[in-house]
Amino acid sequence: MKDDMKQFELMQRPFKGTYLLGGFDDINAKLDDQIVTTQAMLGSSYIGKGKLKGDSRGWEIKLNHMSELFDEILKVQRTWMYLEPIFSSGDIGMTMPNEAKAFQQVDKLWKDTMEGVEAEKAIMDLQEKENIREHFKEANKKLDIIQKKLNDYLEQKRLVFARFFFLANEDLL
User: Fold this and answer.
1) CA-based torsion, 31, 32, 34, 35: positive or negative
2) Which of 42, 163, 165, 171 falls 20 to 30 Å from 19 in CA-CA distance?
3) CA–CA distance, 149 with 98 (Å, rounded to integer)
4) Digit-coded pLDDT (tens) for 67-86
5) Inter-residue contact 31 to 66 (CB < 8 Å)
């Protein structure tokens, strides 16, 4: 099982000077399959209480962490793709400098991580980067705050010009 995961590589596609991860369905299917198999092994009466059970339990924990990591990455990717064109133009950056700075931090994390993935595509290499899951959790928190502040800003503009209530955020921007 471990050899199978070591050979599993992440798929990327170029996007505006960086990369986007693709094949999340394949990744999730592979991880789910591995988790179910490991849990079945742990539930077996033949596994005993020795080293094999400890190794299996450790593998299950690692797979669950990997699954959580990819959930966080997918959330960052979705939100980053939505906010990237907004904050790459200078207008919103000047209007919302704190949010622009926070977005630049997330943007740097995204680009650095995707360059690293391009260099080492094995799924296990990404999992083993130091504090990567925590970095992406923090990035998601920042992106949520940025999105909320952006929505508040657009709501203020709508209150000034009532006809803006009929426009979607993307059109208003």
Assistant:
1) positive
2) 171
3) 10
4) 999 999 999 999 999 999 88
5) yes
